[in-house]
Write a structure and sequence with these properties.
By secondary structure, the chain is mostly helical. The chain has a single domain, classed as Iron/manganese superoxide dismutase, C-terminal domain (minor pseudopilin epsh fold, 3-Layer(bab) Sandwich). The chain contains seven helices and three strands, in the order ααααβββααα. It has a three-stranded antiparallel beta sheet.
């Protein structure tokens, strides 16, 4: 049986390119250690499932499904997250442009209000998880979501436009336990062109 094997994606920038907002050490550990662990976990589960079916042996479907959901969601969300970021060497203002800017101004009144709501959402994720901006293709509404751990509260067919990892592994080397500082600096390196690309696909 041929199985899909997941691979760690290459970053679209150098490991030191997001400094001083995310240090080279923090980004390297996050990408090479933590994201790689989700890739490894997903691959191990896929392989184990294939072997069980080939050998006609049983497995705990509930436990395996839950674990696979966690590992795969971790891989998918991290893959989105890396593309959400871009170097900001000039250090200038980094604000939305194009269609996403229009929707934010229309639905949140202005960018400052949107950033405040998203930041508060990210800061109040209980334990480990993500903050996300999703899009409803039917109503054309932007939706702010909390994703607990990796795999909870994802709404099928609602594309994710922007995600922020607030697991401590995303910022602990740079900001220790000060999540709000990491959230504040995140806005300097958001790749709004990528957010617009995802919106166009939606």
């Amino acid at each position: 049986m041929e199985n899909e094997i997941y691979k760690l994606p290459e970053l679209p920038y150098a490991y030191n390119a997001l400094a001083p907002h995310i240090s080279e050490e923090q980004l390297t550990v996050h990408h090479q250690k933590h994201h790689q662990a989700y890739v490894n976990g997903a691959n191990a589960l896929i392989t184990a499932l294939a072997l069980a079916r080939q050998n006609n042996t049983t497995h705990d479907n509930k436990a395996v499904a839950k674990e696979l959901s966690f590992q795969l969601s971790g891989h998918i969300l991290h893959s989105l997250f890396w593309k959400n970021l871009r170097p900001n060497a000039a250090g200038g203002k980094n604000e939305p442009v194009g269609k996403i800017a229009e929707l934010i101004n229309e639905q949140f009144k202005n960018y400052d209000r949107f950033r405040q709501e998203f930041s508060q959402l990210a800061a109040t994720v209980e334990g480990s998880g993500w903050a996300a901006l999703a899009f409803c293709p039917k109503t054309k509404n932007l939706l702010l979501l909390q994703i607990e751990k990796h795999n909870a509260n994802l709404i099928p067919e609602y594309p994710l436009l922007l995600v922020l990892d607030v697991f401590e592994h995303a910022y602990y080397l740079d900001y220790k336990n000060e999540r709000t500082k990491f959230i504040a600096t995140f806005w300097n390196i958001v790749n709004w062109q990528e957010v617009n690309r995802r919106l166009q696909l939606a």
